[in-house]
Amino acid sequence: MSIAVDQIEAAFELMFRSFLDRSFAKSLSLQAKTERQLLPLIRVGLLCYFHKRVLPEVEVSTPWTKSKKSRIDFRIDKTAVEFAVRNPGKSKSNVSATTNQSEVKKLLKWREGRSVLVLFDFSHYPIQHDGFQEFRKHPSLGKGNHSKNAYTILYFHVVTRRPLEVRCHRKEIRRESARAV
Q1: Phi and psi at residue 127, in whole multiples of 5°?
Q2: DSSP 130-170
Q3: What are the angstrom distances between the C-alpha of 32 and each of 85, 93, 110, 159?
Q4: Other Cβ atoms within 10 Å of 115 Cβ, number
């Protein structure tokens, strides 16, 4: 049985809530950590949640790069997962389409199953609904006729801190077939 995006959303929501929970995080200040610092914790969390169906740093083909290869953050069953984080006081660009262009390209070319871009926003000012329209403009994958697959954005943000209320906005970015110039 394949893992649904709903299950991936539930796993990441549990981690997002836990990172904000003072009784769990104690003195770690997890919401101030960078993406690189959070990835090992998320890896362990996903391993506990999905068991052996999680593979970190899976190599994928990226023909638009010099090396022709890159890595996605996680593969959960057949679903590719890329992760980005915005810390308190940081600009919105950390979770923007422009900054995450390389992650989006990898998700667009993923052929084995679904693709998910997970965005954690620990800031006090979440992105508004119209801020996700930029993700609909697919980046160029270079010369040729590229098939671009659909992917899902899971954007987690804080609504209120006391009492803690978090929300996940889920956006489906549809596939398109485009010919590059």
Answers
A1: -70, 140
A2: GGGGGGGSPPP--SSEEEE--EEEEEEEEEETTTTEEEEEE
A3: 10, 16, 31, 17
A4: 25
Q: Which two tokens stand for residue 87?
A: 């810390």
More confident residue, 28 or 176: 28
Torsion over CA: 24, 28, 32, 37 (sign):
negative
pLDDT tens-place string over residues 62-120: 877 888 889 999 999 999 999 999 999 888 888 888 898 889 889 988 989 999 999 99
Burial of 40 (0-12, 13-18, 19+ CB in 10 A): exposed
Query: Which residues 6+ apart lie within 8 Å of 47 measured at CB?
Result: 54
Give pTM, 2 decimals.
0.90
Distances (CA, A) of 131 to 82, 93, 171: 19, 11, 11
Indicate whether 177 pLDDT > 90: no
Q: Could you give the C-alpha distances from 90 to 25, 34, 126, 133, 158, in angstroms and in order?
A: 21, 11, 11, 21, 15
Q: Return the structure tokens found at 174.
A: 């549809």
Task: Domain ranges for the chain, please list them.
Answer: 5-179
SS3 19: helix
